User: Fold this.
Amino acid sequence: MKMVMAIIKPFKLDDVREALAETGVQGITVTEVKGFGRQKGHTELYRGAEYVVDFLPKIKIEIAVTDAMVERVVEAITQSAKSGKIGDGKIFVYDLDQVIRIRTGETDADAL
Amino acid sequence: MPHRRVWTIALCFVANAARADGGTAVPNSGDTAWMLVASALVLFMTLPGLTLFYAGLVRSKNVLSVMMQCFAITALVSVLWLLYGYSLAFDNTGMQAHRLGLHSFIGSLAKAGFAGVARGALVQTIPESVYAMFQLTFAIITPALIVGAFAERLRFAALLAFVAGWFTFAYLPIAHMVWGGPGAWLGDLGVLDFAGGTVVHINSGVAGLVACLVVGPRRGYPQQPMPPHNLTYTVVGASLLWIGWFGFNAGSALAANTTAGMAMLVTHLATAAAALAWMSAEWALHKKPSVLGIASGAVAGLVAITPAAGTCGPLGALAIGALAGLACFLSTSRLKRRLGYDDSLDAFGVHGVGGMVGALLTGVFASPVLGGAGLADGVDSLLGQLGRQLVGVVVTFGYSAAVSYALLKLIGATLGLRVSAEEETDGLDLSLHDERGYSL
Assistant:
């Protein structure tokens, strides 16, 4: 099993959610986050006083999937989150040791 | 109720009878109704107009402290107005046109405690109670404007002491010299100030400049970012100021007449012109038009048209507004940066600079050639009027600066002006008031 974690632009969230639903993903976790990458921050100007805002708002998505699905999920996110401009985000994939569904006690692939 | 009505009718009868005998007059109901409304509009400028305007511009940890300051100033000045303020500003005992004496500079104490401000007393065509209330609302907003200069760092006791002293030694004499009637120094001289360019705006703006210099910058200024915490408050506040200002300027006619009508129109036009001017200048120089910019521009226009509202025409208002918008934009975004003083919310940058631009241009656009209502009595040339306006600006600037400096030094040596470094970092809401503005 793998955990797919993606940082995307906030306005792409709806597109990404739809694309993921089409791959058969059963659930995702979404978090509002802030950070910086190559896009850097932006500046704000109040009566001539300039403030540099280093951290930009982004959306973090986490999806736990079976090994067989990883490629499709990564492809779906890549396609749907892409605007072609700097700051589109990144996808991280890492191993997942264990999954437990709290209500039933099912584990691993059955719990996904 | 029936009792009271009968009594009122009886009074009117007495008054009418008195008038028939060539005695006292009755109030004009139209004028009185308008001045009651105008008084409420001007108080509305402070509570909640200016309060919201300033509250949005500070950091969230200090939002209550500026609201508290505006509220406390309203209450404190009102009581001082009753005790001696009204009398020292507006009593005309011992005054005679063009004769210089003590009462050319300050009123007497004959009306202290509102002595003689009886139910039936009139000023022109309105009850004196309404006149005193209307003028009080001006005395309230003037020191409240200074709050913007030393926001986020002043001790509360120091604020109260400063406001009480400044109201007494700076506001009352200047108000008297300009508006005290025949025999008042600056009024007699021919300085045109319809609604308070010198008395309210230059006076408070200069006090703000001196205060931020004496108190010193906020900790971390200018390296640390201190952006406004809620510009939506600021926009609502600016909008309330715009509306309330109709009471300020059109009310200064003290009647529901043609002067009031034109004052309202030119006030609105100057404000619109200044809002566009600030927005455009910002768009050209800083790439984007900002909400804070257009709202600040509106306030700059309101400030600048204040002294001119009774004398300029619509096109003059357009020019005054546009020039004030540009001047205040440059003073807040360039001058302040270059000189490095921390006028936190631009009390001087908007009210001081806008007040001076307005006071001088009042002399220009009063000219009938430029659509104005005419120069002051006894002034025969535009240059002569401009010279008198300059005297008004210089006297107010110098006097307000001197009084403010002396008071701040005195308070600094006794009560102390600033909160401690730790209190300032924690925010004044928690450290001075044991409260927070937001529990989200």
